[in-house]
Amino acid sequence: MQALDEILRHAETAIQSATDLKSLDNYRVQYLGKKGQLTEYLKTLGQLPPEERPAAGQKINAAKEAVQALIDKRIADLQKAQVEQQLASEAIDVTLPGRSAGLGSIHPVTKTFDDLRRIFSQMGFVFMEGPEIEEDYYNFTALNVPPLHPARAMQDTFYFSDGLVLRSQMSPVQIHAMKKMAPPLRMVAMGRVYRRDFDLTHTPMFHQMECLMVDEHITFADLKGLLNQFLHEFFSTDAPIRFRPSYFPFTEPSAEVDIGCLNCGGKGCRICKNSGWLEVLGCGMVHPNVLNGVSIDSEKYRGFAFGVGLDRLTLLKYGMTDLRSLFENDLRLLKQF
Ligand SMILES: [Zn+2]
Predict the structure, then answer these.
(1) Cys bridge to 164: 36, 137, 160, 305, which one at CB 3.0-4.6 A?
(2) Distance from the CA of 232 to the center of ligand 1, in angstroms?
(3) Can you give the pTM of this predicted structure?
């Protein structure tokens, strides 16, 4: 009977130290199984004198029940601990602030649109729109480029079959404007234009702004003053600006405008191809044929116009080099703005 107490004590220690259901089951087999220690012990009853057998049998059965009770309690404890652990790990703190979606940013070309809208509305220009699918007349003929004029070859235009084109410049909007409104006139049009071109500095769709002012006594000096103000404000710089003689069919005289390289300050670098200058736009005094074509008296009124590629302005402003990157929508690039 002393050995029985010993077995019971060992069983109690072992069961209490069990950390999972599997090891508990091993203990059950070890003590209560067919060949378990207590079962074996029961088999030794036959060696006792008959009068001692009932008392000894009772004691062994009580020991078996005690071990079973210990195991049951340990199982309950382990299950309870498991549930508590699960509750703790899955707990939700409803007082924590929510996870917000990442903020988007404004596309650099849209920023350029916004800048120009601000600059030119301050100077009293109105903003106008026109169709992207345009009649040949507005895209060319009215701009002093009649059919078969060699200047049509300057632009690789997308043609539809029935005298319609995807506008290759924003200038057609000036014609719409002059047909609708009598001078004095100050208008700006910004939008998408299309040409058959695709390389480092050309994309088939790009953005242009066209600016037109028509009034009595307008001179080239007015154009020069406006462009100085616009370019200096847009690029936040006082870099020099120069005019080079050029040719456009719808202006006479015509000029191309350069600004001192924003990257190297005019010393010469990769971006300005070591010239110290960046070409930014084309401009000129509106050709009398264009004014007469929309019934504006070119003896009384004069005008200036300029057109500028907004994607190129954007590249120059932010020191980028590949025009195509503006249309790839790579978030790593866009997130920097
Ligand atoms: Zn440079």
Answers:
(1) 160
(2) 17
(3) 0.69
